[in-house]
Specification:
By secondary structure, this protein is of the alpha/beta class. The protein is about 40% helix and about 15% strand.
Length: about 350
């Protein structure tokens, strides 16, 4: 039996990591060859996506960062009750990196090492926490799953991990939901990202002002929530949207612009491609690897470069649409689940 510990999950607060967790569980339910048991926190009692599960009532109910730190500290100080809930597991997977409770043999998913590559983006308290708790968890794992070769190489360089323990398993796509729309595209750009510092909204706003000099009818639609600060003229912030509504936006927009300064994988550009949406993307982090030549790349530090990429894509949307559909077809959550299951099998 494979145990899957999700005790550090807080719904709505983890961005792409939560998408990865939920879609992986659904994929394992469809194509997995092992038996599974998911250990859930009181904050997310319905997050098992159909797999057998139980809620760890011993784990503190936690939403805010301070509450989460207290809950993890309490679990580390008294791990016995939580470990008993995973008794019988031949291997335990921690899809959200932290081994809570620590068990062996273990598989940890490492989504990125942004805190090491871009430490200025993090408060000192979080840097300290990651360098202690994250690094201990990752180094103790028997296998480390990463979503891209970029993260594998950075983990080897920054954490000194043994490359032989690392497995690259890309994220997937739900092609049943992500399909091209049949209606005409509307004059707006889409950027689905929480307003975290590395998502680079301010430079996007500068670039958008340049784009509107040539395309004054164009709007910029933001989704994802986070900081709800002021936005420039022509920019609309929709907050965190239900998934079907976000898909509709991808089916109706003129282009997706993705100026992130750092991604361990970068799923939104692929999701957009599956919807037939032309994509212009940052050339940072794992994004060039993920989009694979199917997006117009730009330097995310240069607003003029961002604007030029957007205008190029708007001038030749069919070419970028065609490339994107071909690239998106290479990814599925079933493939992600099968590859993850193969990692479990190495240790069982």
């Amino acid at each position: 039996m494979v145990g899957i510990s999700l005790l550090t999950l807080v719904p709505g607060e983890l961005g792409g990591s939560e998408t990865y967790v939920r879609e992986l569980l659904r994929g394992l339910g469809r194509v997995g060859e092992q038996s599974y048991r998911v250990l859930l926190p009181p904050a997310a009692p319905a997050a098992a996506e159909g797999l057998p599960a139980e809620t760890a009532t011993e784990y503190r109910h936690a939403h805010t960062i301070p509450e989460r730190l207290v809950a993890m500290a309490a679990a580390a100080a008294r791990p016995g009750p939580l470990r008993r809930r995973l008794r019988g597991a031949g291997v335990v997977h921690y899809p959200l990196t932290l081994q809570v409770p620590a068990m062996s043999p273990s598989v940890v998913t490492l989504h990125d090492v942004q805190h090491l590559d871009l430490p200025r983006m993090f408060p000192r308290s979080e840097l300290l926490f990651r360098r202690v708790a994250w690094h201990r968890s990752i180094r103790a794992a028997d296998r480390v799953i990463v979503l891209s070769e970029f993260v594998r190489d950075r983990a080897v360089a920054t954490l000194g991990l043994d490359r032989a323990r690392i497995r690259v398993v890309p994220s997937g796509l739900d092609h049943a939901l992500l399909t091209p729309g049949v209606e005409e595209r509307e004059p707006f750009l889409l950027y689905p990202a929480r307003r975290w510092p590395h998502k680079n909204h301010e430079r996007l706003f500068e670039a958008f002002a340049l784009v509107r000099r040539e395309r004054p009818e164009l709007r910029l639609v933001l989704t994802g929530g986070g900081d709800d600060g002021a936005v420039p003229d022509g920019v609309e912030s929709r907050g965190r949207l239900p998934w079907p509504e976000l898909v509709r936006l991808m089916q109706h927009a003129s282009a997706l612009v993705f100026p992130s300064l750092y991604e361990g994988f970068g799923l939104p550009p692929l999701e957009a491609m599956a919807c037939g949406l032309p994509v212009c993307s940052s050339n940072a982090g794992a994004l060039p690897e993920t989009v694979g030549g199917a997006a117009r790349l730009f330097d995310p530090h240069d607003p003029r470069a961002i604007a030029a990429a957007v205008l190029d894509v708007l001038d030749s949307p069919e070419e970028w649409r065609r490339r994107g559909l071909v690239r998106a077809a290479e990814f599925s959550w079933d493939a992600t689940a099968r590859a993850t299951d193969a990692v479990y099998a190495e240790l069982l």
